């Protein structure tokens, strides 16, 4: 009788241990949050401002570097240097440390024509954009802030609720 009791007790304790281990692994994995696309850019040595505010999500295959970022529609804005950028609702390519290659979904307006940006690389404190046979470099400081669709970095400041109530009375 004690042999049956010992086997039953041992199998019950084994089952309880497995349940505890399984529930702990579920709770720890559900508590882990996926980094934002902006944090991913930083991890690959890029400034966060390469993408506009409002990216809804992204996919990243860390083994191949293939990525996609998703916006809520197309997005365009002007940079201070009079360049106009346009992002499609899906941006994709390959990311590696300091390099975005085979880029699709980002273009710049040069004169009267939209030209696709097919590669972006970091060269020291500069970000270089490759279009066709040309390349343009900009200081990395130009991409510290997240641009906003429509107004870029020159968006009007949102007024605080207290300012609105004072001005309307």
From TrEMBL:
It comes from the Eukaryota. Pfam families: DUF538 (PF04398). Residues 1-27 form the signal peptide. Keywords: Signal. Coiled coil: none annotated. SUPFAM superfamilies: At5g01610-like. InterPro entries: At5g01610-like, DUF538. This is DUF538 domain-containing protein. The lineage of its organism: Eukaryota, Viridiplantae, Streptophyta, Embryophyta, Tracheophyta.
């Amino acid at each position: 009788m004690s042999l049956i009791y010992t086997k039953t007790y041992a199998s019950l304790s084994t089952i309880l241990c497995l349940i505890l281990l399984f529930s702990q692994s579920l709770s720890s994995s559900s508590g882990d949050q996926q980094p934002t696309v902006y944090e991913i850019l930083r991890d690959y040595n890029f400034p966060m401002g390469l993408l506009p505010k409002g990216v809804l999500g992204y996919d990243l295959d860390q083994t191949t570097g293939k990525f996609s970022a998703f916006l809520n529609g197309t997005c365009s804005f002007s940079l201070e240097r009079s360049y106009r950028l346009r992002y499609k609702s899906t941006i994709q390519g390959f990311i590696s440390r300091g390099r975005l290659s085979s880029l699709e979904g980002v273009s710049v307006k040069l004169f009267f024509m939209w030209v696709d940006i097919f590669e972006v690389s970091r060269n020291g404190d500069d970000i270089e954009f490759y279009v066709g046979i040309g390349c343009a470099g900009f200081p990395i400081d130009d991409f510290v802030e997240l641009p906003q669709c429509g107004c870029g970095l020159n968006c009007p400041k949102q007024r605080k609720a207290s300012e609105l109530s004072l001005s309307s009375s």
